[in-house]
């Protein structure tokens, strides 16, 4: 627990100032986090990111994340994100032929889906930060409240297993407790934030949806790890695991938050 707390404090001290500052440093931080996340996923399937196919997967990921405010850079080369992504996919497929199927169609599929999974989540992290700091902190506090509520309520009252085949320690009572704690966060943001342009009831409804999808994101990562028989996605954060272990819920929350069009 001590190691977990120390890691959390150090990570927050590095992470939060860059989130506050925004701009290019924040975009670079997002690219670093996403790159590590893709590395962790590929490693689960024994795919090496430091290879031709790994590099193509990485370029595909970077293209997905590429922020709207920098699209003019690609346009100056007469290419769009879609065209560059298409080239990466075609080269990955061609690589199955070059390697005489040592790099298989299944490997291509896993690499592409992994890049999409990680890339879409972190792309909308950038979009959320562009919309305003309040939305970033709303999403962070919402997930922290969901995780904490699910843990403590589950510990105290949990009797019915939520999804034992995927995550044997999670309970229905804990899940509901996480949603309730998230709603409390939503109420506080509605009362004290002047920049979220929806009423209390609407924000509470949005918060419930985001809390549920955050828990689904957590279960998705648990399913990955159980399928590949690994305890943590990585070891970069002592006491916490890998980047995907910390951002699994948020990779679902940020795209779903964008779908509510709160800042358009």
UniProtKB/TrEMBL annotation:
Keyword Acetylation: no
Enzyme Commission number(s): 2.7.7.41
Domain of life: Bacteria
Keywords associated with the record: Cell membrane, Lipid biosynthesis, Lipid metabolism, Membrane, Nucleotidyltransferase, Phospholipid biosynthesis, Phospholipid metabolism, Transferase, Transmembrane, Transmembrane helix
Transmembrane segment boundaries: 6-34, 46-65, 77-98, 110-126, 132-153, 174-192, 198-216
One GO term describing the cellular component: plasma membrane
Catalytic activity: a 1,2-diacyl-sn-glycero-3-phosphate + CTP + H(+) = a CDP-1,2-diacyl-sn-glycerol + diphosphate
GO function terms (MF aspect): phosphatidate cytidylyltransferase activity
Major place of residence: membrane
Biological process per Gene Ontology, one example term: CDP-diacylglycerol biosynthetic process
Pfam families: CTP_transf_1
Membrane topology: Multi-pass membrane protein
Associated pathway: Lipid metabolism; Phospholipid metabolism; CDP-diacylglycerol biosynthesis; CDP-diacylglycerol from sn-glycerol 3-phosphate: step 3/3
Stored PANTHER family: PHOSPHATIDATE CYTIDYLYLTRANSFERASE
Similarity comment text for this entry: Belongs to the CDS family.
Name of this chain's protein: Phosphatidate cytidylyltransferase
